[in-house]
Every structure is written in structure tokens, then in C-alpha cells.
Amino acid sequence: MTGLFLLFSNGLFTIAATPSAKEAPMKKFDIDTLNNWDQSHSWHPFTQMQEYLEKNPLHITHAKGCWLYDNEGRRYLDGNGSNWTNVHGHSNPELNEALIEQLQNLQQSSYKDLSHPAASELCHELASIAPKGLSRSFFTDNGASSVEAALKMSFQYWQLTGHPQKKLIIGMEGGYHGDTFGAMSAGKSSFHNRFSEWFLPAHHFKAPQQDDMSESLHDLDRLLETYGDQTAILFLEPSVQGPNGMQLQPPGFLQAVAERCKKHNVHLALDEIFVGLGRLGHMLVSTAENITPDFLCLSKTLTGGYLPLAVTLTTQKIYEAFLGDFSEGKTFFHGHTFAANPLATAVSIKSIQKLKQRIESGELQRTCDFFADRIQSHFASHPFVKSIRQRGLACAIELFPGDQSTAESFDPTDRVAHHVSLHLRDKEVLLRGVGNALMIVPPLCISDNEIEFLCKQTALAISEYLHEFLIGKFRNPLSVAI
Hints:
Layout: E1 4-9, E2 12-17, E3 27-30, H1 31-41, H2 49-52, E4 60-64, E5 67-70, E6 75-78, H3 81-84, H4 93-103, H5 117-129, E7 134-140, H6 143-160, E8 168-172, H7 181-186, E9 202-205, H8 214-227, E10 231-236, E11 240-241, E12 247-248, H9 253-263, E13 267-271, H10 285-288, E14 295-298, E15 310-315, H11 316-320, H12 342-360, H13 363-379, E16 385-391, E17 394-399, H14 416-424, E18 429-430, E19 432-434, E20 437-440, H15 448-474
Parallel strand pairs: 6-18, 8-9, 8-10, 10-13, 13-14
Antiparallel strand pairs: 1-2, 2-3, 4-5, 5-6, 7-15, 11-12, 14-15, 16-17, 17-20, 19-20
């Protein structure tokens, strides 16, 4: 079989084919040319491009295991899990093999009125790991789209079953479900404030404290008692609100929300796009807590971090409401061109199978326990760490100016977590900062040595950057041990 590989030498990239009966011509890129193309034509997500253009781009050219490599051969530990997607490491041999095998047979086929073996097998795999009763899979290609599908299914279900007044959405404060309009409406994130006048009708209840859910549930009760008969669906990120800085929910909170949705005849949609498929140490939060929602949204880690794919799982009851003669107008007219793409579904099957083995063997839980231990060891007494929010292999390190400062937190405009993350690049670690929090979300396969390296380098970068930042801000050295 002919494959592709990437070489870097003397400032040039070479993309070439492996030996075959007919050699493909090699294509060369000059790094200055790549920089020019990127700076002249790209627009990166969640990136202030004026800042981005002030420096040369960091071009990631290849990856192996938990490490990414740039155009100059420098390595970086993928502490961000490549946007929270990576499970088994980059260039995993088994996932590569599954992808290549599928590539040789079928690369793309419409999922409208057609099927293919990889999609059918993945539907079976998903039904086997989902909470009992979630037997139907509707594929899209990203997390926000899986949320939009759940919203439209819920709205149409209530129309078809004689409850057309149920049009409202309930979400939780701090929720983030994606950047499309339905997903933004279901959440309540500061990222989306400027678009709020265009949102779908929605109400939001207070988020719980890590050790207290009483006020949150009281607020939810108020909303359901007032708007329950008009509400179609409630969206929740269970256990951990990831994009909101790893905000943790107390034990029993999901069960309490599920009971209230059932009482008021409101669909419960669980967004496990981030927390699902191993991130918190178990396959799914819903399964671990024995909760069967009406909709379950999965994406990010679904393909092990290889290709875009998402799924909305739902019940047979909801599915059957859409059945009937075409003339009845019950068809769910919603779909994506690359829904259930054969390459993505094939690699997803292998990823889930490998994840099952990692969970059943206890290996994933052991990694989570070691991660928790090293996080506490390196950051619990750090002079610039205000708090730690960690569950499974998800962690936020909240930064502050230190006990010797009169300020309780940094000014958001200082963007200290972002600048610490940039400082970390020189220490061979890639992380992303949100507000005053550093988010640590490594691949699930990360080794003990890599966890130790990640924590040690991050703690050092926090000390170095904030010590210099505070000296510059207040013009006098702080007697803080670094």
C-alpha cells in the first residue's frame, strides 16, 4: 500500500509517498512560505488574530503518543489532549490500522437512505455502552451539531405527540454546549453574550456548588413549576462543566435533576461531549450514575481524536414518534453531508473497543488516581494557586496573586493563564488558559512519567511567569519562593 510521510530538513518540509510501483512526485514547502500562507489567509478559532499575527505561527507537523512536534523538531507534551479529543495517543498503531483498512475499501458514502458496515457496527457498540434504553444513534460531525439535533428532535417530538406549546429550553448557568445558535441558547457562557438577542427562548438555573446543590435545585424547581408545561428540554453537562473552568457538581446532583425532569415531563439531554468516553475514569457519566436521559450527546473523544464525528443517542419511544407514512410529515428532516463517515466510524469502533479494555483492566482508573495524586503534590501548596478542580483526567488550576497580595484574583484583562500557557511552550508543554485557570486535559493514555513531567513543568512555569509579572506590575520583588 502507498502511504504518506513528512520529512523536515534544512527549513523545508517534504511530503512524499512510500515506495510503490510508481513514485509520486515530492512536494516541498519552505517554512517562510507556510508562515506567509497562514498569516495571509487563515482565521483561527477562539484566537485574537491581531495578537496571533505578531509572531510566527507554531506549526505542528507530526505527533506520536502524547507528544506533538513542530517544524523545527521541538517536542511538546499534549497537555490539552488536542482540544480534549485524544484518547490512545497520536498515531496509535491499532487505530491507524483500522483507519487504513477502511480507507482501502470505502472513504465516504451518503448516510441518507443508505448504510455501510462501519456505521452499523458503531451503532451496535454505542448501544452496548450507553445507558439502558438509548438504542438509537443519529450521527452528525461535531459536538454542537449533536446538540442541535437533540433540540430539533425534542421540539418535533412534542409537536408530533400533541404538545406544541413545549418550546422552551432550560439550561444551567455556565453551561457551554457549542457555538451554533441552538447550542448557545441551551448554554450560558460569557463567550456568547454578544449574540444573546438572537437566542432561542431559554431559561437558566443556578449551578451547584461543589459540596452543595440546594440553592441550584431550588432555582430549578422554580423554573419547572413556572415553565414546565412549556419546556421541551433541559440540557446539562453532567459531573463537570469543562469549558467553564472544570466546575464540579456534587454527588447525587444528576439524579436530582433527572427526577425533576421526569416529574415535569421535560426531556433531559446530557451533553457528555467532554466528560464522556473515559475522561472521568468511566465510560459514561450517565451509565456510572445509572441515569437514562432522553438524549445523550457524544463527540470529542468519540474517534480517539482522529476525525470529526458526533452522535445523538435517544430512546426507542422518541424514535417511534417519527415513524409513519411519508405523507404524514413525521420525517426528521435534518442531516449532515459527512454524517457517519466510514473513516470516522471505523476508527471510532476501534477506539471504543480499546477504551473498554483500558477501563476493564483498571488501567484508566490507576492513571486517574496517579494524576490526582501528582496534581495535589505539585499545586495544593503552590503560592500562586488559589484552588484545584480535578476529576478523572480533567483539571483546572485557578491562579491568583498570592497570599501576600491584597488582590483576591487577577484582573481578567491580564490574561495570566493564557500567558503562562505561552511560557510553557519553552518547557515542552502545550496547555490552554481560560480566564485565570489553566486547563489540564491530557490524553487518557498518558504515562506516569509524562504526568510527572507535565505537573513539574507547569508548576515551574506558573512560578516563573507570575513572579516576574507581579514584580513588573507592582515594581517591587515579592518574597515568594519559586
